[in-house]
Every structure is written in C-alpha cells, then in structure tokens.
C-alpha cells in the first residue's frame, strides 16, 4: 500500500513516557521521517509519592504530534500509542479527573503490597496476572486508596491508566489494551479478562475499569477536539497500542524467542519475547502482553541511569551538572570489579527480581584505598550486575537467551556498553536507532492498519550498529562477584526492615534530586 505520490505510508508512534511524550513518524520501510517531544514534571509532594498531572501529559501528546506533523510532506495513515505501564487515575462519571496520575515510581502502597505478598495466594495471583505484587502496580494502589482515602475511593466511577485517559480524550472511548492491563495485577493473562479474585481484593467491579481490547484494536476516528488540537483529520484512525516495555522489544527487533531486549534509561529492564504467557515458579519475572500470540517475560529495575546521576551529584559535583562523559571517564580509571567494592544500587528501592520496596543502596567492601573513581565505577557495575540477576531469572523461567539487544541513553557510553556485556557474559548488539517504544508502536499500528504483513518484519528493519563481546577476563571477574552481589540483598533485608521501622523517629531523608526532564 502506498501513500501520497507513491511514497510508503506513514504512521506516527506516540510514546507517553515517564518524563516526556515523543511522537515519531515512520514509513513502512522503517525510516524515521520526523520526531518531536514535550516534557512534564514528576511531582513528589511527600516521601513515597510520585505523581503527574494528566492534563500536562495530554498537552504534551498534542504538542508533540502537532510539531511532528509540521515536518511531514505527506498525509498520516494513523496514530499508534505506547505508554509507561502501571499508572492509575481516578475519574468521575463524566470522565473528569479526581486524582493525579499515580506512576509506577510511586511507593505509597508498600505496606499493602507486602501484605498481599505474605499471604499464600500472593504468588498464585502473580502467576495468574503476570504482574508482581509490588507497590508499582495498580492493584496495591487501589488497596491504598480504599484504606487511606475511602471517600475518594467510593467517589471514583472509573479507574484508568494514563494512555486510557488520553485515548478517551482523543477518541471518546474508554478502553484499555491487553498489554497495559497485564501490568495492572487485575487481568488474568490466560483468559485475557479481568481476574475475579484480584477485583475482589481491590474492592472494585469490572464496571469500574475500561473495556478490554486487543493492542491492535483500531478506534476509527478522532474527536472534534483532538482533530482541532493536533491538526489531523477527524477520520484519522487510532491504534490503541501497548505498554512501552513490550513495544521496546518490538522496536529493537527482538521479536523472536531467545532474543532479549535490554534498556537502561532512568530505570532499566530485561525482556524476552515468548509465544505463550507464563511466570517462573519463584515469581522473579513479570509476563506482559504484546499481542494475543506474543508476550514478554522479564524484569524491570528502578535504578538505571539515575544511579550515575546520583554519583555525579554526590561524588563529583565539581564536574558540573551535565558532566556524564567526564563522570564515565573518571570511572574508567578504576579496575574491573572496582577493587573489591560492591554497590547495591537501590537508591529508589528496587523491583526485579525481588520485587520489594524495602531495599536501600549500600556500598560494601569500602577500604582506605578506594577513591571516587572506584565508587563511581562500582555504581555502574551495580546496575549491570542487577540486570544480570534479572537475566538469570529470565533463564530460570525456562527461556533460552541467544542474543541481547540494548538501547537507552547509556548506550552512548563505550564503558557502559562494555561493562554490560561483561556483566551479562553475552554479546550485546546495539541498534543504530534508539527510539524503541515509539518505533514499536508505529510497527504495531502498521500491522493493525494492514500496511505491513506482520510485526515480524521488525527483525529485518532494525539495523545493528555495533556488537560488543564480553572480555573473557572481565566477564570471569563479574561472574565471581555476582553470587556475592546476590547474597547481599538477603543479608541486608533485616537491616532494611529496621531502617524503615526507625525512619519516623529519625531526621527526614534529604530531598531527592528531581529526575531529568
């Protein structure tokens, strides 16, 4: 199918991220034609809270789409959406906002999550819904609202995610896709329907949730408001799309079993595509949907590039506020293994593979001989070692790992690339383009609109720029240290527990540095 003047058709992939929305136009050959983004803040009004204003996000979606359209010289065949997972918003009966968007980073529901994890049915719930019992997920957040704000909880007519709300404004329909729903803890991933027990725990009925639809569902037209705001014709079809994690796999071309996608931005993740849903017996991984016959199994970590940002602020403020290159150069002066120094990078608690809000960061093995280059390098190594634990959980779930493809801001650094390959002990391929989720959204949209035969074409459209192979000696060092790294979490759990118990009587924590826009 050709677009205007015989040119390939164009789809805009709209990726609603944690700190910005990006709209990227692609044609069916995979060529990027235009891109624009608009940012928004993350509010932390009190410890454990991580909220955003949905209206600011909607404005950013409109701004990024409109700006991208101005750079195109041909019509758009459709929009397709990606968004960060696990957000929760309460709406009244008219669809108006009653709450901010409670993001994945919000940990206020820690006690509710721990209570759910402790009961015998907790692991069974994880295996059935694919979502770990963790404060990131909407299920514990709903429990928090029911217990802490019962009047508001009763007033809410609909609980939705951020993409659901944007689509309501864009298309006038209240729907959520199987991918976003598989990250709520409320959907049975085998039946693709809301889970009766999870709904009972949350204290809500299915009528308070959006209608479940396929990720390739097409909403046939825009509302008059959305058409006017974006500059698109009202007849423009909108593909509902999916979560940013599964779509990142698609955007990296990691669409076949055994191909693992790794991303390190502010946070990080490891995901492998599988053809049937399933969670490992110990519950170390999540399982989220992409399509009815494609799922991703893996784990996300809270602490990715944010750890290096912290190291710059705390350990090397003299290098300046935007000195990532100088900071990495400093780390390169330290040896592999940082002279026996291990950092647990749990500055924002942690998710995979332990799925607990308890842990805190720690340096272990510090001696008089260590300098700040050792501390900075061990921070980078800690992030990569945590990803190695996630990869081990992916394997424990019965998945073969043949290839790793990586993306994210860290990929610009040669040292990060090499440490990652060494810590994982496998070769890591780096695609030439790093717009994983927006490209994945566009490809999913192209399939839904009949513009490409299958999302399998992604493997051929993604060009690999570089392959980093592990250095045998460095890989052996990290393999030796990994069991120690893993042991430290279990050893320090009692300390983490005591610190949380004592926290109310201690001076308050320092105000965190705002995440980068």
UniProtKB/TrEMBL annotation:
Residues 261-448 form the Carbohydrate kinase FGGY C-terminal domain. PROSITE patterns: FGGY_KINASES_1, FGGY_KINASES_2. It holds the Pfam family FGGY_C. The keyword Transferase applies. Residues 11-251 form the Carbohydrate kinase FGGY N-terminal domain. Keywords: Kinase, Transferase. The keyword Transcription regulation does not apply. SUPFAM superfamilies: Actin-like ATPase domain. InterPro entries: ATPase_NBD, Carb_kinase_FGGY, Carb_kinase_FGGY_CS, FGGY_C, FGGY_Carb_Kinase, FGGY_N. GO terms for molecular function: kinase activity. Belongs to the FGGY kinase family. This is Carbohydrate kinase.
